[in-house]
Specification:
alpha/beta; 5-stranded parallel beta sheet; Rossmann fold; about 130 residues
Length: about 130
């Protein structure tokens, strides 16, 4: 059985690198990354990730717009999406959950607990 595949979409290179290292090391998962919404959409279609960690604020296509595109496509609408965001106000988090995302993880996140947060949100075992 192949390890879980996680697609991390974030315009900040350091966030992608930290998330990738954390999830590969602590979770034992395969991680692929994208620097923006368009690239992330293409990878979601071709790489069949088990989950997408998606930044909310990106320059080319923001997270909520990309989430809508993923939901509108039959090939990607089943993929759970967890938002990574610095917008941690309760009202913002409620809005994101109402969109249909699986969970919201606040940035900056703790690399030591990221895999645990993801596993808990998805009911995966570590």
């Amino acid at each position: 059985m192949r390890p879980k595949r996680i697609l991390v979409i974030d315009d900040e290179e350091d966030i992608r690198e930290i998330a990738q290292f954390s999830l590969e090391t602590m979770g034992g998962w395969e991680v692929i990354t994208a620097a923006g919404g368009s690239e992330g959409l293409a990878l979601a279609l071709t790489q069949a990730p088990d989950v997408i960690l998606l930044d909310v604020m990106m320059p080319d296509m923001d997270g909520p717009t990309l989430f809508e595109k993923l939901q509108a496509n039959i090939a990607t609408q089943h993929i759970p999406v967890i938002l990574l965001t610095a917008k941690v106000q309760a009202a913002e988090q409620r809005r994101f959950v109402q969109l249909g995302v699986k969970a919201v993880i606040a940035k900056p996140f703790d690399p030591m607990t990221l895999a645990t947060q993801l596993a808990k949100a998805l009911n995966w075992s570590l």
